[in-house]
Amino acid sequence: MTKEKNKNRLSHKSRLNRSNGGDIFINLLLIVFGLFMFLPMLYAISSSLKPLDELWIFPPRFFVSNPTFKNFTELFRIMANSDVPFSRYIFNTIFVALSGTVGHLFIASLCAYALAKHPFPGAKIIFNVITLALMFNATVLALPNFIIMTKLGWVDSYQALIIPAFAAPLGLYLMKQFIEQMIPDSLLESARIDSAGEFMIFFKIVMPMVKPAWLTLIIFSFQSLWAIGSNQLIFTEQYKTLNYAITQILAGGVSRGGAAAAATVFMMAVPIIVFTVTQSNVVQTMSTSGMKD
Prior knowledge:
Blueprint: H1 2-48, H2 52-55, H3 70-80, H4 86-117, H5 123-133, H6 138-152, H7 159-166, H8 169-182, H9 185-193, H10 198-209, H11 211-226, H12 242-250, H13 257-277, H14 279-289
Helix pairs in contact: 1-13, 3-13, 4-7, 4-8, 4-11, 4-12, 5-8, 8-11, 8-14, 11-13, 11-14, 12-13
């Protein structure tokens, strides 16, 4: 008996050692890949702090030698002298991103709840169409979107940027998969027996239980709308977004290279901060919905 106990201890100890070693290796590997993926952001930050003589040097240098904040002051100087204040572009971008995200969250969640928990004739066909729509690139949809907005009379208005975001298929797909797998039918039936209406069930039971899913939906929707352009649908300068303003700076030539680098960092920072704060919810939603990429 003593020999068998010793054997079990040794085998258990060896398994623990191998497991610890594997964890260390995996963590080191993830750190290396994480640092590698952070390199573009680091290069963007470094470029925004470079004076013009370092910014256009060849061969280019990764790190800045003489850091300066002149590029940021130049950015605000350029935008202050423009016909439309820089704050107007920021307001337009925030307004479009928040409005589109809230509308998309509400519509996608309600539609996902109906598809997941209220089966009706044609529900599978509708979901297959939604899944198929995930494969279409935004460039392919640009012309149909322009035609629809023209017919509705929404060209050159906020609606042209906000309303199409409501129908983005990714959010509906995520919410439907998550609700289907995480919400048991017995729980909903119990709520109905207690005389709870469908909207009460949706807001009091379903939405709190799928919080990681709709937080992920908020992240993806906000990121896409934050970087949205406005050249094809918006012609009035007062309605244009920050992305358009930065494009105009980039078109200013070599002398505005530093301001363009500073603007790029500003555009990158907000979505990355939002994603970093809520990344655990993204991982949980991706694993539950079955998506790998």
